[in-house]
Design a protein that fits this description.
By secondary structure, the chain is mainly alpha-helical. The protein has two helices and no strands.
Amino acid sequence: MQRLNPNANAAVKAEAAAQVARRTARAAAIKHARSKAGQAEKRQRTARFNALNSGLLQSFADADAVLEAERKAGLIDESEEEEESDE
């Protein structure tokens, strides 16, 4: 392979070094995730996500209530159906 690609040996060595580095980094990431600090970070992310989700659900419920009130007041005409054009 050296005749076709003069960099072949260096590329093989670099890939081997990269594999070792990836394995080491993954082991460190798993160790951190299983530590108390990593678990605390996970709890914090989960709480933040759940708060955002509940806020989003409340926002949709509020918007739906506004639309329903406008329908009852007659501001939204349900008989007309607008079609989107592809132009």
